[in-house]
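Quick sanity check, Uracil-xanthine permease:
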Amino acid sequence: MKSESPIWDAKKLGIPKMLLLGLQHTFAMFGATVLVPIITGLNVSTTLLFAGLGTLLFHLITKGKVPAFLGSSFAFLGGYAMVAPKLADGSPNAELLPYACGGVVAAGLAYVALSALIKAFGVKKVMRFFPPVVTGPIIISIGLILAPTAVTSASEDWLLAFVALAIIVVCNIWGKGMVKIIPILLGIVGSYLLAVCLGRVDFTAVKEAQVFALAPITMAKFSISAVFTIMPIALATMMEHIGDIAAIGATTGKNYISDPGLHRTLLGDGLATSLAGLFGGPANTTYGENTGVLALTRVYDPRVMELAAVFAVALSFIPKFGEIIHSIPNAIIGGVSFILYGMISAIGVRNVVENKVDLTKSRNLIIAAVILVSALGFNSIGGLSFAVTADITISLSGLAIAAILGIVLNAVLPGNDYIFDDEKPDDGKTSVSFKV
């Protein structure tokens, strides 16, 4: 469904077409959103519930002006893997997952803090502390740290992994319209159907699941180590958020960084993330997939995104549907992750290139080098732990150490010439189908 001229009031299309447009946005976000709970061990129904509620909260805080959908963020996968790694048999680490969710709550509050700083001091002054020379290498590190898990999962069944990978590549490169926008969903569905035909799917849990029920709620728990491990990841996702809001603005022709203001969009995203983490869901982030649907349909009414959020909430009340998602073989997830994690690092590289970071300057080269070595090096030895008191020990992950060192070096080394342009923040190039 595509309109020739932009439509800002979807009501004039009629209720049936509005519902169809909302459903289209639901399909766009679905594959990536449910992939995160599958990888981490979180519940799919809970994830869908708080993706929907988080999106509605975001629209409330931004005064219903920004046509954005908030789905699961991949950037926090590394944090979950460090705080709550899956058990030897591949089952979720139910004991430690609530602590990882507590770290996500803290990460959401970091958004709130940045929002307050931008409101108080202005976006240009604040953003000097978070230039692309810091955020780019951090995003690169996230993908590289996750890479081994993709290979391990894919090796369980290379056929299924290859089919999933091949479908994603074909759809993303040669696909047209919605096919190009939902390659992850199509890759999962296609390889899953093959797995069913080969008898490699266990439907026991699906048969036992209820048809309708409330999504399970697991309250977050908090530990200093989990917070210090996961919260610094927000540095990368906050910068991604800014790029996404700019990309949505470039698509619709409006500057949302000025109105309703970056402080409002960050606040909405942060509170949605904290809300999800508090009740057992993954962190949220604005979705480039849905920006692609905006460009495809040219219907820019934010109420269409709100309909998609309602659809997501409705799906969360169908446990049998959630168990079908959980029945996806691990090898398929490995195949999807095989390209996904590489794309995360590639997005980091693109972040550096598109912002024209001058790596011939010694300060920039030093900052990038320290971030990359710290993230990968300390991660390989399990991070860094030190005792604060006899009862309190703080553990810092490689990413946390890298983020701290990057911010400090950028602040103290001379020659920081980064200026954030809030008038023409982006040309839409930051919108991608594979989300960080």
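Posting the structure with no commentary besides this: Confidence is low (pLDDT under 50) at residues 425-434.
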